[in-house]
Write a structure and sequence with these properties.
Helix content: 10-25%
Order of helices and strands: EEEHHEEEEEEEEEEEEEEE
Number of helices: 2
CATH superfamily of the largest domain: Helix hairpin bin
Strand order of the largest sheet: 7-10-9-8-11
CATH class of the largest domain: Mainly Alpha
CATH architecture of the largest domain: Orthogonal Bundle
Structural class: alpha+beta
Length: 286
């Protein structure tokens, strides 16, 4: 047995990685090759004798069958020997080897990992309502914790043909160029799908939206004039909204509120519809 790679090495498709012990198979091949040579000579000799009616047709047929069987045996031996040479199925980067010379290997034993690092596939999912916004070759941007200040860009290569009935989401696959091999398979990534630029989009901070099964809502502060004491009367009004695209810490509001509405961004848990509020933005929340 020999190991023909180093941990962390780049290999090309077809490169020899591991040579398993094939001494028994080589000896079997030599035996079958010797038998093949004999069966070939015997078959050719009986063909000549058949022309002179010196041998029965059945003997020639038997010799031919033996010759063909020997050919198949030699071919089978060559396949077995080839299988003892473990080669790279594709080009990529070798991981850390899991076996050593002299180790007994059985079916299923992990020898080493091989990863194609350029390009990389990015698999993620999006809510089913975003399906009309997706298309192949659409640009995506992603960030990983390993390189927080760097954004990587790629394109959507495939969109799944079915919706996940449990999560109501659609699976999407994108391709990311990785020429410098900064990214590795298995990294957790924050993916953003780039949509066409829209003008005059109404957005709020994401923490201003209360999400629930009954619908997403926002508390808006409405001025109801002054009360009997002459003090300003501000009322919290719950408005159900339809949200759109999310980006960073903001979410687009498609309908439900209008530009200029005063939105509650913190403390919604203490509010209820028509609750009277006092705005004090000087308070530092902890």
């Amino acid at each position: 047995m020999s190991i023909d790679f180093q941990s962390g090495q780049h290999v090309k498709q077809g490169d020899l990685l591991v040579q398993l012990n094939d001494q028994v198979d080589q000896k079997t091949l030599e035996k079958d090759q010797a038998k093949l040579r004999f069966d070939k000579i015997d078959y050719e000799r009986k063909q000549i004798l058949l022309k002179d009616n010196a041998v029965a047709r059945t003997a020639v047929d038997a010799a031919k069958a033996a010759y063909l069987q020997s050919e198949a045996a030699v071919a089978s031996d060559n396949v077995m020997i080839a299988q003892k040479k473990i080669r790279a199925p594709f080009s990529g980067k070798i991981g850390i080897r899991q076996v050593n010379v002299g180790q007994y290997i059985t079916t299923g034993t992990s020898i080493v990992t091989l990863q194609a690092l350029n390009p990389l596939y990015v698999d993620f999912s999006l809510p089913e309502q975003d399906l009309p916004l997706l298309h192949v070759d659409q640009t995506i941007s992603l960030k990983v914790d390993a390189y927080p200040a760097q954004a990587f860009h790629g394109k959507i290569s495939a969109i799944n043909s079915t919706i996940d009935v449990n999560t109501r989401s659609i699976a999407v696959r994108a391709v990311i160029p990785n020429d410098n091999e900064l990214l590795f398979p298995g990294l957790f990534a924050d993916v953003q799908v780039i949509l066409p630029v829209k003008r005059n989009v109404l957005t709020v901070l994401q923490n201003a939206v209360t999400y629930s099964l009954y619908g997403d809502s926002i508390y808006v502060v409405e001025n109801q004039g002054k009360d009997k004491k002459g003090e300003l009367k501000l009322i919290a009004v719950q408005k159900f909204v339809k949200t759109g695209e999310r980006r960073d810490n903001h979410v687009a509001i498609v309908e439900g509120i209008k530009a200029g509405d005063e939105v509650v961004t913190t403390g919604q848990i203490k509010l209820h519809p028509n609750a009277r509020v006092l705005i004090n933005n000087s308070v530092q929340l902890k």
